[in-house]
UniProtKB/TrEMBL annotation:
<dbReference type="InterPro" id="IPR003593">
    <property type="entry name" value="AAA+_ATPase"/>
</dbReference>
<dbReference type="Pfam" id="PF13732">
    <property type="entry name" value="DrrA1-3_C"/>
</dbReference>
<dbReference type="GO" id="GO:0016887">
    <property type="term" value="F:ATP hydrolysis activity"/>
</dbReference>
<dbReference type="InterPro" id="IPR025302">
    <property type="entry name" value="DrrA1/2-like_C"/>
</dbReference>
<keyword id="KW-0547">Nucleotide-binding</keyword>
<keyword id="KW-0067">ATP-binding</keyword>
<dbReference type="GO" id="GO:0005524">
    <property type="term" value="F:ATP binding"/>
</dbReference>
<feature type="domain" description="ABC transporter">
    <location>
        <begin position="5"/>
        <end position="231"/>
    </location>
</feature>
<comment type="similarity">
    <text>Belongs to the ABC transporter superfamily.</text>
</comment>
<protein>
    <submittedName>
        <fullName>ABC transporter ATP-binding protein</fullName>
    </submittedName>
</protein>
<keyword id="KW-0813">Transport</keyword>
<dbReference type="Pfam" id="PF00005">
    <property type="entry name" value="ABC_tran"/>
</dbReference>
<dbReference type="InterPro" id="IPR003439">
    <property type="entry name" value="ABC_transporter-like_ATP-bd"/>
</dbReference>
<dbReference type="InterPro" id="IPR027417">
    <property type="entry name" value="P-loop_NTPase"/>
</dbReference>
Length: 307
């Protein structure tokens, strides 16, 4: 497989602060990649470097096989910031026409391309001026604008964080539609969005990658978390004390009164030992529910442990 983005040991310092501290990242061509981290983890800094908008202190960056910011690579990258800005008096078509002019696209191609993009982003037939758009519509127009030149790589900084659930869904569906047509790299702190749409993910914290790879790989990466088990029991505090420190348990949280959420590395062991522990304490087990570990379980476990 060919990498659309390859970052090795990237460091960026601001004075004494290391915003990026040896970041490694690989994004395969044609994939949808989630760049996931809490606030301040270093996502925007890394994206700015790979777009050629900032320089690294040290480390290697190749984008579409080239140095970031080089004249041959920049036109092949589409970028949408978290809050895309437009002239409020323009219509969506006018915004896209002016972007097409900047890229010097021929008029015939431009018309077809704009129709396609308005269709793709659900803005076809919308005659209102951009000033009256919802945040979701602005975000979709920002994505259309970033795609005007049919880029090989689309980079989006937090494309869904300001949107309501419906707006988020529309944008995520749009990103999913791009799979295979263009490589998509988007930063986010929203785990469900990554789970919904990404092929691969990198979880970063304090300017480093904690784990990266396919969703399945990442789900099992943190101490090999296999499953999440929700236990409804009449005295959760006593059960918690009894379970704490057992080698097959990674985290125990009280998620609601009477409910414990366990993440476990060995499901067989958990299925055998849990009822036995409950019985030994003389507790009443009201309900047990089990599911695959989610990315959220992994993320909270990993980032929580680092802090
Ligand atoms: N120009 C700057 N000068 C000084 N420190 C900076 C600068 N830009 C970023 N930082 C610091 O570098 C770290 C990483 O910031 P960055 O914006 O890349 O994080 P992020 O993951 O994008 O966070 P967010 O989700 O909040 O945007 C933070 O601690 C931030 O305060």
């Amino acid at each position: 497989m060919t990498a659309a983005v390859e970052i090795t040991q990237l460091v960026k310092t601001y004075g004494r602060h290391r915003a990026l501290d040896g970041l490694d990242l690989r994004v395969e061509e044609g994939s949808v990649h989630g760049f996931l981290g809490a606030n301040g983890a270093g996502k925007t800094t890394a994206l700015r470097i790979l777009l050629g908008l900032a320089r690294q202190t040290s480390g290697g960056v190749r984008v579409l096989g080239q140095e970031p910011g080089s004249a041959s690579v920049s036109p092949r990258i589409g970028y949408c910031p978290d809050v895309p800005g437009f002239f409020s008096w323009m219509t969506a078509r006018e915004v896209l026409e002016s972007s097409a002019r900047l890229f010097g696209l021929p008029t015939g191609t431009t018309r077809r391309r704009i129709d396609e993009l308005l269709e793709l982003t659900g803005l076809r037939g919308v005659d209102a001026r951009v000033g009256g758009y919802s945040r979701g519509m602005r975000q979709r127009l920002g994505i259309a604008q970033a795609l005007i030149n049919s880029p090989a790589l689309l980079v989006l900084d937090e494309p869904t964080s300001a949107l309501d659930p419906l707006g988020r869904r529309v944008v995520l569906d749009l990103l999913a539609e791009l799979r295979g047509r263009t490589t998509v790299l988007f930063s986010t702190h929203l785990l469900p969005d990554v789970e919904r749409v990404c092929d691969t993910v990198a979880i970063i914290d304090h300017g480093r990658v904690l784990t990266a790879g396919s969703l399945a790989h990442v789900r099992t990466a943190f101490g090999g978390v296999q499953a999440r088990i929700d236990v409804d029991v009449d005295d959760p505090a006593r059960l918690r004390d009894a379970l704490e420190g057992l080698p097959w348990i990674v985290t125990i949280d009280e998620t609601a009164p009477g409910m414990l959420a366990l993440t476990v590395t060995d499901l067989d062991e958990a299925q055998t030992r849990l009822p036995a522990e409950v019985a030994a304490l003389g507790l009443r087990l009201r309900r047990v529910e089990q599911r695959d570990a989610s990315l959220e379980d992994v993320f909270v476990g990993m980032v929580g442990v680092q802090r």
